[in-house]
Specification:
The protein has 160 residues and is of the alpha/beta class. The protein is built from 5 helices and 7 strands.
């Protein structure tokens, strides 16, 4: 008589329904944008593009952002959304104000993001220590997984 087979019940893999792309609209975030759009399309997830207008810099609080600055940023983010939609993604956007790292994690929580995609400016460990790092802050404070995407050709972090 054969021994009974061991059966393992696998837990279902959670579906990614909302991917939050945090972007500062610089060339350093373009690789993260491309990755987030591709993931959203491949997984059939909603892509939420978030850009933060910083009202806190270096621990010093500034007055709110002028409406015309907010409008310019919204138009810039809308370009990213339009390109994502043209590629086949279900995309929308938000423009938040505040300290970038805190605003990104707050937006992710408020919108029920299942994954945050953020770019890295490719700073070394010393650079992150001296300058701070939004992506580092998000990785350590987000309530969901975070994918940090380095710019293409950014191999100088190998020694970090």
């Amino acid at each position: 008589m054969a021994a009974p087979a061991t059966v393992f019940a696998a837990e279902p893999v959670p579906r990614l329904e909302t991917i939050l792309l945090a972007t500062d609209l610089t060339p350093a975030s373009s690789a993260a944008t491309a990755e987030a759009v591709e993931l959203a399309i491949r997984l059939g997830a909603r892509l939420l593009v978030v850009s933060v207008l910083e009202t806190v810099k270096g621990g010093v609080s500034r007055r709110g952002v002028r409406p015309e600055v907010r409008e310019v940023r919204a138009r810039q983010v809308q370009v990213v959304v339009t390109q994502a939609r043209a590629a086949g993604a279900n995309a929308s956007y938000l423009v938040w104000e505040g300290e970038a790292g805190d605003a990104i994690t707050a937006a992710a929580e408020a919108e029920g993001a299942d994954l945050i995609v953020v770019g890295s400016h490719g700073r070394s460990t010393v650079g992150r220590f001296l300058l701070g790092s939004v992506s580092d802050h998000v990785v350590h404070h987000a309530g969901c997984p975070v994918l940090v995407v380095r710019p293409k050709g950014d191999d100088d972090l190998a020694e970090a």
